[in-house]
Amino acid sequence: MTTINKTWLITGCSSGLGRAQAEEVLKKGYNAVITSRKVQDVQSLADQYPETALALALDITDQEQITTVIQQAEARFGRIDVLMNNAGYGYRAAVEEGDDEDVRNLFDTLFFGTVNMIKSVLPGMRSRKSGTILVVSSIGGRFSQPASGYYSAAKFALEGMSDALRKEVAPLGIRTIVIEPGAFRTDFAGRSLQGAKTEIADYAETVGPRRKENDKSHGTQPGDPQKAARTIIEITESEKIPFRLLLGSDAIQTITKELDAQKQELEDWKGVSLTTDYEQ
Fold it and tell me: How many domains does the structure of the chain reveal?
């Protein structure tokens, strides 16, 4: 067993990929600080591994709580080797329908909460010149669909920040990996999905099919969370790592199609793009 991944801190462990990750990390024999807004949602898992698991309440939009969790984790295990930023939820609304408070809450969780977690573990990782930061994004961090404008905007922001982060911390011995899952059989399209408070009829054809009440994907998604969790562990144990890691056959198909379309658009409009330089 390598020592680089000895202690993991995972956010959003009450269900889904975060829960699966916590289970697989503990099965592997690593230490794990498993967190959820309500500690009772993860306590039963921690009780199965009294020597290597620490269950803590954590709302990643609360900086005071983040600081406390980091202190407790270091007091118990001495260090944090892997931070997995998994906490989050889905939000679907047409851009025009997006409620200001809902959108700000979404960004506070998906983007600013993740940033605050990263900033809080970096001092320790910098001092040791080692560490791995995992950022759970989405295929929605590469392209967007009707109803997902705000969710994708938050994930795009995460990926842009992470791209800079990896270049800043790589010389310090710290690794950054963005995880881009496709559709996995979790609560994402069920309990964890929120939507617009007010719906506009003109968007019935574009946004309508993807509203929570019309989404029939819950429970039928192709991705297996346990397999994803095991794959993520294997990647963090490897010397060679990707910056972006797609998970799932649907993710590969979707992003390949998107990248092909982007490349074709670049070629189609390259002539126009080249007309904007100063004349030599």
Answer: 1
- Look up 137 and say whether it is catalytic: yes
pLDDT at residue number 244? 97
**Residues 18-22, mean pLDDT to the nearest whole number:** 94
Q: Does position 227 have pLDDT exceeding 60, yes or no?
A: yes
Q: Quickly count: other Cβ atoms within 10 Å of residue 137's Cβ.
A: 25
* Residue 38: CATH number of its domain: 3.40.50.720
Which residue, 79, 80, 58, 82, is CA-closest to 69? 58
Digit-coded pLDDT (tens) for 114-143: 999 999 999 999 999 999 999 999 999 999
116: containing domain: 7-272
Residue 277 lies in a domain: no
pTM as predicted: 0.92
Using a CB cutoff of 8 Å and minimum separation of 24, what contacts does 197-206 make? Answer: 197/99, 197/102, 198/97, 198/99, 199/97, 200/94, 200/96, 200/97, 203/94, 203/96, 203/97, 203/146, 206/94, 206/146, 206/147
Determine, yes or no, domain membership for 2: no
The answer as to whether 175 is a domain residue is: yes
Of the residues 120, 151, 152, 203, only one is catalytic, namely 151
What CA–CA distance (Å, rounded) separates 56 from 65? 10
Q: Which residue type sits at 232?
A: I
User: 256 lies in a domain?
Assistant: yes
Catalytic residue among 15, 120, 137, 152: 137
